[in-house]
Model the fold of this input.
Amino acid sequence: MRRLSYLLLLIAVVLIASSAFAQVGGAPAEKPAKAWSIPIGVGLGMGLAAGLAGLGQGKVAGAVAEALARNPGARPGIQLALFVGLAFIESLVLFTFVLLIIST
Done:
């Protein structure tokens, strides 16, 4: 039940944010000058996302190695969980990359 409420809260925030950042109608604004801080922010954001994902993947690999050392017979299930976990971690980095590219 708690996860459902978190999911509904997330959906509400996403729907409200899209209308909050909508452009106000009227005369077209002048083209803004390219800010120098955008590339720096993108670089820092991507570096932070990739670095923390690398730490997470290292922890996952260490836990898998320990689990296989304790119970080698459970290799197929552990290996499946390893690949799914690594895919989720890597997808978060790719989503961050896409959002940072879109924001520039």
The chain has a mean pLDDT of 82. Residues 39 and 61 are 32 Å apart (CA to CA). The helical segments are 2-20, 37-70, 75-103. The chain is about 80% helix and 0% strand.
